Protein: AraC family transcriptional regulator
Amino acid sequence: MTAGARRTAARRAGRQAGPAPDVFAPRGGNDQADGPVPLHRLDVPAPHLLPFAIGSFDTIGPLSRAGFPHRHSFHEIVYVTGGTGTHVLDEDRRPLCPPHLCFITPGQVHYWDGVHGLRGWVVLFTDDFLLAHPGDRDALARLGERPWLRPGPDDAARLSGLVGEMLREYGERAPSFTSVLQAQLHILIARALRMSAPHDAPGPAGGPGSGGTGTGRADFVSGRSALVAREFTRLLAQPGSLGRSVRSYADELGVSVGHLTELVKRGTGRTPGRLIRHAQTVEAKRLLSGSDLTVTQVARRVGFGDPAYFCRFFRRETGLSPGDFRRAADGTGGIHHDPGAESIAAPRRPE
Structure:
């Protein structure tokens, strides 16, 4: 089946899926601008509730097992407990031999090929959900470099117990459930960092220990695009980098601004400018919600010399002024929808 046919079949599957809501959706109105590999966000009726979702492949929806190459604007952790077939991540084909724990970072291209009986759990979240534990962003980047982990029996039992606790917390929504979920996600990431060495991961198809063909796919981003995109995001994550221009990054990487824009867009689905603005917004949220810095000090920390311009920028990106965001984060304001954040599903209550 061609990639175009896979995309058409998956869209039809999403419409015919029955009662299970599909929290994956094409990025609003701009599929063609994202190039040949679709960029998915998470789409639900109440996006202001929580930048996090967890469920089974069935409850998350049919696109959680999409059979066509696509990328996400959010993080995905997949704990596969059953099934056969192949998972393909950035041209690397991994035959399923559960249990597996897989980390997919924003911008990575992946799909499920020829899978049958796929079972397990899917955890979805944006960078906003990591504000309580900002170090988890670096940990996820490291896990994304070696995304497939194969837990042993003891680790698998602990993972199942932890995921079960997260499912209950997400479904019950008791007081302070968001803080509990953030702590549980932090534990999940920390335990993953302790896990097995690279040889425990299933070998790429076509490589040692595999009977696959190892063939690539034309719809995937090139190795050059992925390499430059990873290097750009690494530079962007360095301390003191948020005030830099796209040109300064291009100069450091030895490419033109236009070429950097093209490669990063192909590698992540977003332009360098958009990624810089997103990083500035996330850091500003972290400082506003977790420190006593003034708005002027926050503005300078994220690269703005003019506090008034920073306030206009922050309102454009989030729909809130910095002061309103801080009051909402402190619990002294109402619940607001942040239109700059990705939409993520809330669990459906029984009718």
